Amino acid sequence: MNHPALDIVILAAGKGTRMRSELPKVLHPLAGRPLVSHVIRTAREMDARRICVVYGFGGDAVPQALAGEKLTFALQAEQHGTGHAVQQALPHLDKDGVTLVLYGDVPLTRADTLRPLIAAAQSGNLGLLTMVLADPAGYGRIVREHGRVVKIVEHKDATEAERGIREVNTGILAAPSARLADWLGRLGNHNAQGEYYLTDIIAMAVADGIDVLASHPNDEWEVLGVNSKAQLAELERIHQRNLARELLDHGVTLADPARIDVRGELVCGRDVGIDVGCVFEGRVELGDNVAIGPYCVLRDVRVAAGTKIEAFSHLVGADIGEDSSIGPYSRLRPGARLAREVHVGNFVEIKNSVVKEGAKMNHLSYIGDAEVGAKTNIGAGTITCNYDGANKHKTVIGDNAFIGSNSALVAPVSIGDNATIGAGSVIVKDAPAGELSLSRARQLTIAGWKRPAKKLRREE
Ligand code: UD1
Ligand code: MG
Predict the structure, then answer these.
(1) Whether residue 316 sits in one domain with residue 241
(2) What contacts 233, CB < 8 A, 6 or more positions away?
(3) Number of domains comprising the chain
(4) Most Cβ neighbours (<10 Å): which of 142, 193, 239, 331?
(5) Is residue 224 over pLDDT 80?
């Protein structure tokens, strides 16, 4: 069967006055991504020919934020209502197709909820997403006669009797595009708000003998919109609860499903455990049996099977091998590539470095632009001095080396396999394999030296 092609219009021109922000409402982040990006992601699941974003408030901020995505943009320079907004998209719509209208500030609608609307439009009808609410105040009301939808009345235009109707318009609808263009062309703005209401097309469709087929979302949160910071915070919690539920269903152990934040994609193996207060950003992959301690932040990180991340660790752009132990209080920065069975302890920072199997650095170190050999031990307080004030240089440490505590390795420099560096050294020349190298003032004992005593202040 050949369905008419689908175009999707996303309304995103509004200012969102109640957000009290300079940022256009649809760009406020939910789970780390702009609200409108959630809508676009759902739209992409619908196999649309074209996705057209109607923008307005904030100038080019919306198109700029979405640059790089395959989208069409239509400018609605002044916001004269939802019908006027869809009109701006008309030049981009294929008249042989159907159009689905979504709202840029309604981020959590499921794709499956939208499919019946599209199917209705593709069979020549109008699909409308409605919902019965305990408190319908503020919404457009669905007016039915003999059970059939005949029109929508906006709250501000509704009579007392109509305000008693609890079935409301979610705003989301789908219709054959040629019909839609015709109806939009006939809209007037003689109403309480002086706006061109998209909702007025319902009565026009009925007058044209088109069936209005109302369907409903499974959950109310699917059609909740964001108008204020309070609603944004509420939706964030709902979304995070849903994501936590998915992780639990997948078999992940969460110490508290209400205390995890996923702002991106979290992919977990079997028997992963996550303690409270962790934040996952970008794409994070956790292998089988990985355990994440409390209050860790992981962004664009891969953690291989069996590794433990202890409390308060901050890991960004790192790749961590199997059966390793990281933290508490470790910081891994982009380009930290750790092999298996590596130990990184408290207050150790690693950036752009390769650390080979079984190496240990347990306390107070900075390892940057370095290579650390297998089974090498980096003593407490060791610093790779990678920056000369202008350029970065590399430190290469061989296998099974031992770097004494509080050493400064001034790059470019290399330490051979099995080399030992005496504690407190400043190493500026290559240290040969297998030998002890050190650079430090020799220890003296001054026989008979006395500590100065505190002078007594004579009272005058
Ligand atoms: C709209 C519906 C109402 C429905 C409610 C659901 C109309 C006339 N009313 O009312 O039936 O119950 O949504 O939340 O459609 N927008 C533009 N350009 C404009 C006006 C709005 O892009 O000129 C965008 C807004 O940014 C927003 C969406 O359209 O994302 C809805 O606009 P809003 O003003 O919130 O409509 P409501 O009055 O809530
Ligand atoms: Mg609204």
Answers:
(1) yes
(2) none
(3) 2
(4) 142
(5) yes
